[in-house]
């Protein structure tokens, strides 16, 4: 097994069971032991300091009698300091009190947040889009995910020169795993190798930075050229998920990626629970990445449209929601009476229009007492002999049931707004069409139908946030708007692992179709990398600001309440071309984020947990006054209020430019918004000017935020920031 650099041959043991046998939220190997992460902050600058020796000495002091049983799981020694180890509760307490230990927290399990899209956003193939080839070739995207399929054409190094000189990483992908001049590095943090078995990591990597590969499709669907935003860039893959995505592996990957020299980190991983920043491995890793000039792009999560369901909340990360494009896949159903219904499915099966008998789940019940559950096609409620060779009709659909019961196809009610891949011809009908379909079954003497192969349909409607995309508000920092941005996450065709079958058999495909914020995240990461090719010296916050302030405006969707507002899509939909020339940017430094954390009244210990260093709060910034590209404030009541935001913009457009402010109210909002000064006159590049936004009003709707947009325009650039003011009951952070 290939191991990461922080492992030592002197370790007493390597624990394979960590990722193979755990099914709980915390890893156990004995009833009284579990894996804890011992976070020790920044690495000391002393030349004689050896992290591994320090980590081993701590363990030897704490576990004198049982050193054989309690093993060092992994050590962090490249970008920050710490280790993971199996400890009893009493041992954990002793370690937590030791000098140099910042925090000790349990090793949690996180989740993966699982072509035409780039054309849709304006990044055209070939010479249709302006590029900076030499800088793009020196740009490295670190993909923290479930591994990668190195043999995919999307990662071929044909035409590539050697890796950038700044690259300090290695290829430690495991047995029979080879890197090349495109896929320049690979690491894994669990037994096995860096090879992707689920398809998730391969898919996300190719979305962000995959080569342009012609004549690709999923069984003919989406036929064309698959490519990433920056196809000439390099990829470094860090396999942090092997069935499960553990905190200790994620921190190890951040540790390595930062030291390896990546430029952008994309991580389509998250939790369904919110943890404080000091106990969130992604927030901690991203803070260290930010301090080294690396932007971390994180998926918002797939637990929408519930209010306050978003878990990627740190302001130093770019948090990405998922939305539609102008393409969707549909699967038509042709009834025996000639009527055609249009449903959703990514269905690559072609039954040549042949009609088959229909059987409603209820009439295929294994017994009269099972009729109710048979309507939902529960597996134990259906008689396979009544289903075999027919089209199974269900009130709701469990994909494998129709397949295992011998149905030739399936039709079911589906209220979702995205299509899925199934192992047989399937069509999901909206409620009204499904009711019409059931009426046909009841009225026809011998009802039959044909489920047609899916086809792509194109529309000109504005993108909409998908129902599954997690929503704000931010339950840790109420005055920081999350998500930040939205990007395509619907039915994205991208590279797949040949270990991952899209069906319930051994079928292998080189390219597959997936939906989720896992797909929107690498879209935004690709855009961030694209911007960096034109502005290599821009800080993470500058890139983030450019993305947010140039976004396409979004309209309220049909979910109602918070789920339809900026808490669904943030600043809007990413616009890659405009983001390369934003005009003005809102810049932030590590010191600003520390002042922001001080403003949250964190004590010295908690500050060290997040930043990895001793912090003295010489300055405090109110949440709402962090120089963020969006403006948000949660009010204590809906009575008369006045709230003020302070912001500073930096001119990155043209010298001798004058920006005038305009405020646009949204959703019939009755806010009063004043900008002072209302005009900014820039004399030179990189000049900074400060302004204030004062928002006043009364009697806010507790079920819907009031919002507006501030636009600074010089006639060429339109620099837009959402302003959101809200009240009402919003979930608070649960206890850790």
From TrEMBL:
Q: Provide the Inhibitor I9 domain boundaries.
A: 35-113
Entry keyword Disulfide bond: no
Instruction: Identify the CDD domains for this entry.
Output: PA_subtilisin_like, Peptidases_S8_3
Q: What is this protein called?
A: Subtilisin-like protease SBT4.11
Query: Is-annotated flag, keyword tRNA-binding?
Result: no
Instruction: Outline the extent of the Subtilisin-like protease fibronectin type-III domain.
Output: 625-725
- Catalytic residues identified in the record: 145 (charge relay system), 200 (charge relay system), 518 (charge relay system)
Give the InterPro entries listed for this entry.
Answer: Peptidase_S8/S53_dom (IPR000209), Peptidase_S8/S53_dom_sf (IPR036852), Peptidase_S8_Ser-AS (IPR023828), Peptidase_S8_subtilisin-rel (IPR015500), Peptidases_S8_3 (IPR034197), S8pro/Inhibitor_I9 (IPR010259), S8pro/Inhibitor_I9_sf (IPR037045), SBT (IPR045051)
Keyword list, A-Z: Hydrolase, Protease, Serine protease, Signal
């Amino acid at each position: 097994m290939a191991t990461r650099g922080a492992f030592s041959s002197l370790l007493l043991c390597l624990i394979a069971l960590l990722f193979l046998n755990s099914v709980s939220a915390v890893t156990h190997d004995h009833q009284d032991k579990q894996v804890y992460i011992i976070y020790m902050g920044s690495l000391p600058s002393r030349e004689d300091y050896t992290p591994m020796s320090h980590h081993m000495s701590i363990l030897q002091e704490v576990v004198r009698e049982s050193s054989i049983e309690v093993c060092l799981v992994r050590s962090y020694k490249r970008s920050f300091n710490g280790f993971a180890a199996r400890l009893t509760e009493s041992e954990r307490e002793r370690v937590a009190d030791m000098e140099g230990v910042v925090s000790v927290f349990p090793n949690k399990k996180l989740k993966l947040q699982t072509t035409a899209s780039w054309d849709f956003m304006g990044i055209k193939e070939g010479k249709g889009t302006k590029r900076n080839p030499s800088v793009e070739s020196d740009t490295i995207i670190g993909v923290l995910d479930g591994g990668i399929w190195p043999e995919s054409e999307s990662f071929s190094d044909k035409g590539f020169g050697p890796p950038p000189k700044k690259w300090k990483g290695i290829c430690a992908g495991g047995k029979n795993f080879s890197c090349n001049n495109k896929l320049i590095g690979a690491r894994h943090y669990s037994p096995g190798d860096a090879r992707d078995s689920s398809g998730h990591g391969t898919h996300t990597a190719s979305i962000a930075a995959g080569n342009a590969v012609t004549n690709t499709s999923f069984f003919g669907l989406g036929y064309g050229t698959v490519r990433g935003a920056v196809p000439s860039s390099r990829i470094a893959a860090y396999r942090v998920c092997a069935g499960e995505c553990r905190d200790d592996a994620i921190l190890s990957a951040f540790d390595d990626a930062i030291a390896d020299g990546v430029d952008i980190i994309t991580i389509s991983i998250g939790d369904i629970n919110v943890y404080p920043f000091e106990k969130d491995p992604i927030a901690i890793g991203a803070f260290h990445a930010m301090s080294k000039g690396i932007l971390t792009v994180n998926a918002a999560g797939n637990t929408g449209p519930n209010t306050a369901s978003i878990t990627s909340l740190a302001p130093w990360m770019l948090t990405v929601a998922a939305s539609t494009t102008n393409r969707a896949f549909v699967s038509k159903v042709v009834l025996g009476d000639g009527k055609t219904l249009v449903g959703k499915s990514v269905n690559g099966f072609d039954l040549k229009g042949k009609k088959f008998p229909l059987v409603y789940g209820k009439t295929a019940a294994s017994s009269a007492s099972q009729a109710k559950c048979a309507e939902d096609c529960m597996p134990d409620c259906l008689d396979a002999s009544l289903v075999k060779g027919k089209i199974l009709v269900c009130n709701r659909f469990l994909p494998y049931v129709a397949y295992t019961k011998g149905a030739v196809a399936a039709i079911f009610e589906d209220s979702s707004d995205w299509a899925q891949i199934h192992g047989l011809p399937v069509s999901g009908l909206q409620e009204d069409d499904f009711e019409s379909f059931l009426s046909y079954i009841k009225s026809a003497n011998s009802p039959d139908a044909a489920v047609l192969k899916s086809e792509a349909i194109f529309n000109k409607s504005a993108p909409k946030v998908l129902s599954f995309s997690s929503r704000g508000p931010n339950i840790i920092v109420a005055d920081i708007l999350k998500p930040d941005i939205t990007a395509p996450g619907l039915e994205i065709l991208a590279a797949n692992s040949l270990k991952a079958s899209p069906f319930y058999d051994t079928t292998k495909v080189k390219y597959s179709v997936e939906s989720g914020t896992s797909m929107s995240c690498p879209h935004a990461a690709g855009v961030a990398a694209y911007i960096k090719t034109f502005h290599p010296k821009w800080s993470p916050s500058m890139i983030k600001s450019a993305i947010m302030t140039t976004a396409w405006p979004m309209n309220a969707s049909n979910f109602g309440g918070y789920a339809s507002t900026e808490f669904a899509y943030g600043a809007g939909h990413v616009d890659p071309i405009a983001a390369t020339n934003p005009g003005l940017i809102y810049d932030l430094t590590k010191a600003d984020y520390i002042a922001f954390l001080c403003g949250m009244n964190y004590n010295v210990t908690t500050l060290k947990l997040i930043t990895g260093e001793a912090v003295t709060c010489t300055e405090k910034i109110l949440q709402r006054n962090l120089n963020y590209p969006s403006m948000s404030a949660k009010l204590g009541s809906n009575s008369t209020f006045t709230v003020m935001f302070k912001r500073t913009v930096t001119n990155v457009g043209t010298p001798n430019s004058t920006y005038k402010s305009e405020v646009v109210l949204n959703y019939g909002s009755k806010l009063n918004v004043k900008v002072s000064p209302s005009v900014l006159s820039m004399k030179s590049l990189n000049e900074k000017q400060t302004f204030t936004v004062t928002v006043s009003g009364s009697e806010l709707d507790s079920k819907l935020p009031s919002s507006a947009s501030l636009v600074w325009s010089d006639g060429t650039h339109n620099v837009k920031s959402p302003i959101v003011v809200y009240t009402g009951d919003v979930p608070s952070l649960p206890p850790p």
